[in-house]
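Hi, here's the filled form for the chain we discussed.

Project: internal
Contact: R.S.
Residues: 299
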Amino acid sequence: MNSEERKGDASEFAVKSLSEDPANVSILLEALPYIREFHGRTVVIKYGGAAMREESLREAFATDVVLLKYVGLNPVVVHGGGPEISDYMRRLGMEVRFHHGLRVSDRETVEVAKMVLLGKVNADLVSRLNRAGQPAVGLSGEDGSLFEVAPVGNAAEVGFVGEIEKVDVDVLNHISADYIPVIAGAASDREGNSYNVNADEAAGKVAAALGAYKALFLTDIVGWLEDPEDESTRISEATVEQVEDAMDTISGGMKPKLGACLDAIRGGTQHAHIIDGRRPHSLLLELFTDAGIGTKVTP
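And the returned structure, exactly as it came back:
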């Protein structure tokens, strides 16, 4: 069977599926106004958490991002790799510690983190996007001087963790015209010292620098919770002011995520979303359905 025959069979199957299940038509019609609204817009996606750990979710994420590119959006992916980094550190007999959601990092920790982020996580995601049908290019904060970093304010507690002071979007604008940029959270300062960069912060700063229409943060819970122990208390929508008022009461991994939402919106992003990466195709559900599934932060 040649390629044209295969395409014909696929088209016939799609038409048959739609005609047999009207719900499929409803789904397409519900998505249409969002596809129209987002066409040509840049969306920055922070990839991490459960979506990284399970094979089926990794494949679903790659497929979703490629679909966004096909329907006219410009996706930019920023990824972490926390669980993978911790796993390799334990294999090497290294202590894994966190302070207010940030990995405590000495020079050896940063070295392991860069090897895992660039040599494994980034390369794997680029390969999946390529196989799913769109060419992708892997980057770190050091490529094209993308990130300019300095030690975070509490460097005494966390060590070599960098805070992004500037994002040079020229390299991203060149790449995103034809490719999907995939950015790892690693960078160095002007003296050449390497730093871990929190991937949530990196995504927020990238979204702000690009003036992205949306920033989306995949995590391991359903969204921002009023009660961190009760997922039924998800806050579906909040303003910047409400997030700012609550920041002093928030701890753990949610704090840098909400901080990144604030960075994005202060930089001109229209909406920031925290969504459940444990749910297959959560990106599409949040972007293209009326209900949405996570927490949306608005100006």
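Let me know if anything looks off before we file it.
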